[in-house]
């Protein structure tokens, strides 16, 4: 069992690494730490002594304890054969195919992957970045975390840039960083699928978008742009915005409120297939037929989408190709070659979850 001293040390170190205590920030006094952790002065001093030895803390005589500039020289070692891959998730949805595509190319060139996932949380992103940099990875392939929100980890990204460590982004990018990226045209793709619903005769469409990720913001913009081409019915559009940590009931409550209106939506466009699958299941639980009562569309062409009943109309996502292209770009970066960002054009995949209002998609 972990002893008290180790718990205090780990808690303080975590607070420093996560940015809770900034460089040169004064730490709580020994007495305050004793009360905070409910431990003896000896325990606090032992924990703090270790952190001082490890260069996380420095003391000023009579002034207290402060956070030292713990950032290290993370310059890549010339013989490193490890490439770090950080995604928001990697156990499900589209991510296994992306990682598989990266590994196909990387392993053929003698490199190995070091994987990490952030669960779309900035603090977890910070921990992953530090762990991989301490491991002296040769380069980093990163899916941004909550990319539509201010990122508290810009100090680390600036150090990465200053140290010359190759970095590229997948699926999205941080606007304030100029690293190359492999992405999808989320605006154009969403506009295409909304145009399809409008052509089928839907006028009132509900769009549900995750707005703490820049992909969701872009897809929402595509939704709006499609309606801007039809100003006579633009007032019938409906938007539901949510963040990654929101409970699904918040979304279903908004769906219910829209469906209860006289001019209720006849179609629902979801941020991605993962959400669309949950929305379809919810609508069925409420006794609604898809697409006869409500059409549902997604984005990303998740493998399971074709096996739903009815199968899901969606937009393509390159997945494995994205991983392969990202890996090829990384190898070029490691070889000091210039690379250009890649943007895929998602294609409409018509299945059976969308049809004319009040009719089956197969009519």
From TrEMBL:
InterPro entries in the cross-refs? AraR_ligand_bind_dom, LacI/GalR-like_sensor, Peripla_BP_I, Tscrpt_reg_HTH_GntR, WH-like_DNA-bd_sf, WH_DNA-bd_sf
Keyword Disulfide bond appears in the UniProt entry: no
SMART domains per record: HTH_GNTR
Keywords, ordered alphabetically = DNA-binding, Transcription, Transcription regulation
Q: Please report the stretch or stretches of sequence annotated as the HTH gntR-type domain.
A: 2-70
Recorded hits in CDD domains, A to Z, give: PBP1_AraR, WHTH_GntR
Protein name as catalogued: GntR family transcriptional regulator
Q: Which organism is it from?
A: Levilactobacillus tongjiangensis
Q: What is the lineage of its organism?
A: Bacteria, Bacillati, Bacillota, Bacilli, Lactobacillales
């Amino acid at each position: 069992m972990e002893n008290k001293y180790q718990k205090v040390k780990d808690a303080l170190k975590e607070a420093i690494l996560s940015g809770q205590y900034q460089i040169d920030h004064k730490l709580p006094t020994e007495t305050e730490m004793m009360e905070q952790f409910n431990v003896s002065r000896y325990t606090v001093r032992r924990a703090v002594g270790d952190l001082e030895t490890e260069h996380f803390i420095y003391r000023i005589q009579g002034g207290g304890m402060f956070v030292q500039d713990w950032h290290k020289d993370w310059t890549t070692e010339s013989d490193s054969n490890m490439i770090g891959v950080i995604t928001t998730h990697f156990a499900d949805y589209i991510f296994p195919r992306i990682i598989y595509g990266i590994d196909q190319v990387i392993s053929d060139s003698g490199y190995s992957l070091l994987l990490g996932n952030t669960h779309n949380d900035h603090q977890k992103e910070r921990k992953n970045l530090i762990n991989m940099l301490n491991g002296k990875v040769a380069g980093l392939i990163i899916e941004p975390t909550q990319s539509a929100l201010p990122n508290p980890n810009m100090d680390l990204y600036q150090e990465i840039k200053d140290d010359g460590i190759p970095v590229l982004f997948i699926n999205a990018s941080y606007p304030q960083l100029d690293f190359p990226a492999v992405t999808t045209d989320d605006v154009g793709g969403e506009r295409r699928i909304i145009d399809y619903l409008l052509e089928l005769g839907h006028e009132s469409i509900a769009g549900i978008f995750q707005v703490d990720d820049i992909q969701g913001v872009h897809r929402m913009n595509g939704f709006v742009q499609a309606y801007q081409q039809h100003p006579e019915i633009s007032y019938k559009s409906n938007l539901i915005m949510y963040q990654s940590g929101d409970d699904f009931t918040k979304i279903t409550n908004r769906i219910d409120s829209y469906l209860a209106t006289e001019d209720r939506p006849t179609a629902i466009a979801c941020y991605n297939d993962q959400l669309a699958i949950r929305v379809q299941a919810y609508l069925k639980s409420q006794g609604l037929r898809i697409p006869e009562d409500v059409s549902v569309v997604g984005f990303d062409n998740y493998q399971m989408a074709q096996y739903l009943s009815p199968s899901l109309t969606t937009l393509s996502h390159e997945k494995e190709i994205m991983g392969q292209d990202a890996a090829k770009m990384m190898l070029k970066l490691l070889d000091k070659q210039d690379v250009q960002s890649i943007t895929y054009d998602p294609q409409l995949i018509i299945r059976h979850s969308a049809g004319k209002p009040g009719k089956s998609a197969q009519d």
